[in-house]
């Protein structure tokens, strides 16, 4: 079966999928849907520089590459936790942890 092509999606040389013509990573659109439970129309309202076709293409790319993208999301979370742990106690850290728990 030939590899699927995704209109509006380009993959950088280091393997990161972006929405073509923008600096928006596919993972950012996916996280908006996962964390905020936004549908494509709400994502477009929150990111007016994106067209619905770009958003749907990003979501299709995610669903076709779900295992690897979920792995990348988990790695991002691990890096975030490591960074937060190295910060030590501070008002900023407390605020970040509070905001993270609210999500």
Key structural traits:
single chain, 103 residues, mainly alpha, two-stranded antiparallel ribbon, globular
- N- to C-terminal separation? 39 Å
The percentage helix is 55-70%
Strand neighbour order, sheet with most strands: 1-2
Query: What is the mean pLDDT?
Result: 90
Return Rg in Å: 16 Å
Structural category is mainly alpha
Which parts are unreliable, with pLDDT below 50 for 5 consecutive residues or more?
A: none
| Strand/helix succession | EEHHHHH
Question: How many domains make up the 3D coordinates?
Answer: 1
Largest sheet: 2 strands, antiparallel
Give structural notes.
The protein is mainly alpha-helical and 103 residues long. It has one domain. 63% of the residues lie in helices and 6% in strands. The protein contains 5 helices and 2 strands; from the N terminus they run ββααααα. The protein has helices at 26-36, 40-46, 52-64, 66-87, 91-102; strands at residues 9-11, 17-19. The chain has a two-stranded antiparallel ribbon. A hairpin with a 5-residue loop joins strand 1 and strand 2. The protein starts with 8 loop residues before the first strand and ends with a helix. The model has no long low-confidence stretch (mean pLDDT 90).
């Amino acid at each position: 079966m030939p590899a699927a092509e995704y209109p509006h999606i380009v993959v950088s040389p280091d393997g990161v999928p972006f929405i073509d013509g923008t600096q928006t990573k596919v993972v950012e659109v996916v996280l908006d849907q996962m964390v905020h439970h936004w549908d494509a129309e709400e994502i477009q309202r929150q990111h007016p520089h994106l067209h619905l076709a770009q958003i749907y293409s990003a979501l299709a790319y995610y669903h076709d590459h779900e295992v690897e993208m979920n792995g990348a999301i988990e790695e991002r979370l691990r890096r975030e936790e490591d960074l937060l742990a190295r910060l030590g106690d501070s008002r900023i850290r407390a605020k970040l942890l509070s905001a993270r728990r609210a999500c």
